[in-house]
Task: structure prediction
Amino acid sequence: MGLTLFLYASSYLVRGEILRGILPFHTAFHLDKNLDLDFQTIGYATVHQKWFNRVTHYTIFYDAFLWFGVFHYWHWSVAAAVAVFCVAQAQALIFRERVYAIIQIGFVGAYFGGSWLLGNAVGWESLYLVSVVLLMLGGFLRFIGHTVEPMPPGVLDRSTNFAN
Result:
């Protein structure tokens, strides 16, 4: 979580040409870009061209549920605050992507409620431990996927081609 906060802060504070050499898709951390599904889709399709790069991101479908399990373990109010933030983000999306925003609100409710029910059923310690392990494995899998994908034009050199 600390690395994510660092990337968010640096993407706003450091000049683009400096950060581009370290993190080629640094503008993905800008909130206005996070709400732009066209930008996100084009960026994802551009950088993740090989099947392996795409497969490594499939853990994202259950990551949110696992994060809510971790948040509930810390305290129910943390999970509630994250849910409120996600719903607020979905409200911002309604102006551009109404259907997606409504689906997101439904998923946030399902993740919040589902993780609470599962935590009560299997125990909070167990849910926390399994969630942390699966989140770390998913992050490591995405890390491996990102190390083998080609870099976008202009990152490693001034050419207009993708480079390895």
